[in-house]
């Protein structure tokens, strides 16, 4: 919108054109005007408006004193009437009517629609605003939704005639993620707490300045440092943080050293097997005509200890005699015949 005669062909204000000249951005600004600035809503802009769930509203009174406000609702609460006009409902608020009061004095209004979730883009709509009763606007546009928000019905609408529509750069728009759904909004509620109470403490400070006690029955309790009965501002809604990363897997515990098997105990040596007793010498046969000799008395076999002693004595005797000396009983017959090992 331009009020200067020398630059009536240019969009925007005289002040912005003067700053463009001073800062050397005229060429960039002219390119933006030519490529991005429209005096109507194209198809993609209309689709963007139809799915918007919020916007920021700028108004000013007859003296140029500005005000900004926030509006929100389900997708479609901003209704596209045609490619040159939109309308949004006005619901019951705090009873001040600052925005609509400014519109009655100064129809110029600016809307900024933001998409923080999907496209991360914004749309500016500047134009002239008019307050229209629900019945009157519905007679012209019967397609208006009846229930623009659950449990709320608009008594008034604000119709904005589009003069400028242009993009808001995505470069500095943060990406916000919707929080999980909570309890339904208190549309139209007069409950002190559900409307926010005295969150910033302005009412408490005003009462303290007047020396008045705090109100009773607000259901908001008292807070630290507040006068008895003053409303405690509700705690801000915590922003849901992203889920923490999963903890790292636990380090593997050191495995205990294998226990060596017990040393094998050797089995006990087998018991010595007793040698069979030597066979008795055959009975001597008497020559014909000679008497039989008396039977020999059996001699008990020597024990193992006796055998070892006899063997050691025999070895010692053999070493003493040498290899050429015959044993003392050589040529004599052993009294028992076969000796120790037999012949």
UniProtKB/TrEMBL annotation:
Compositionally biased residues, Pro residues: 231-302
Ranges in coiled-coil conformation: none
Sequence ranges of Gly residues compositional bias: 214-226
Biased composition annotated in UniProt, kind: Basic and acidic residues: 14-26, 303-336
Pfam families in the record: PNPOx_N (PF01243)
Domain Pyridoxamine 5'-phosphate oxidase N-terminal: 42-168
Superkingdom of the organism of origin: Bacteria
Gene3D superfamilies: Electron Transport, Fmn-binding Protein, Chain A
Protein name according to UniProt: Pyridoxamine 5'-phosphate oxidase N-terminal domain-containing protein
Organism field: Streptomyces harbinensis
């Amino acid at each position: 919108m331009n009020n200067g005669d020398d630059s009536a062909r240019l969009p925007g204000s005289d002040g912005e054109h003067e700053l463009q000249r001073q800062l050397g951005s005229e060429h960039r600004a002219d390119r933006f005007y030519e490529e991005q600035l429209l005096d109507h809503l194209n198809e993609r802009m209309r689709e963007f408006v139809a799915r918007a769930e919020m916007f920021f509203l700028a108004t000013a009174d007859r003296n140029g004193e500005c005000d900004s406000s926030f509006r929100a609702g389900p997708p479609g609460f901003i209704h596209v009437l045609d490619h040159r006009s939109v309308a949004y409902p006005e619901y019951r608020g705090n009873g001040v009517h600052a925005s609509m009061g400014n519109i009655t004095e100064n129809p110029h209004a600016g809307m900024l629609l933001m998409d923080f979730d999907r496209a991360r883009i914004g749309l500016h709509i500047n134009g002239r605003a008019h307050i229209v009763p629900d019945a009157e606007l519905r007679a012209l546009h019967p397609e208006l939704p009846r229930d623009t928000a659950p449990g709320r019905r608009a008594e008034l609408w604000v119709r904005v005639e589009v003069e400028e529509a242009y993009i808001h750069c995505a470069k500095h728009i943060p990406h916000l993620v919707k929080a999980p759904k909570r309890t339904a909004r208190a549309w139209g509620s007069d409950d002190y707490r559900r409307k926010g109470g005295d969150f910033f403490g302005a009412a408490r400070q005003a009462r303290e300045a007047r020396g008045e006690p705090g109100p009773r029955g607000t259901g908001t309790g008292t807070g630290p440092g507040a006068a008895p009965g003053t409303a405690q501002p509700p705690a801000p809604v915590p922003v849901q943080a992203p889920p923490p990363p999963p903890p790292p897997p636990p380090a593997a515990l050191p495995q205990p050293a294998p226990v060596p098997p017990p040393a094998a105990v050797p089995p006990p040596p087998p018991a010595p097997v007793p040698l069979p007793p030597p066979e008795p010498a055959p009975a001597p046969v008497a020559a014909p005509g000679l008497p039989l000799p008396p039977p020999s008395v059996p001699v008990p076999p020597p024990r193992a200890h006796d055998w070892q002693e006899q063997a050691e004595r025999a070895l010692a005797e053999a070493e003493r005699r040498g290899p050429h000396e015959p044993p003392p009983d050589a040529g004599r017959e052993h009294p028992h015949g076969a000796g120790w090992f037999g012949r």
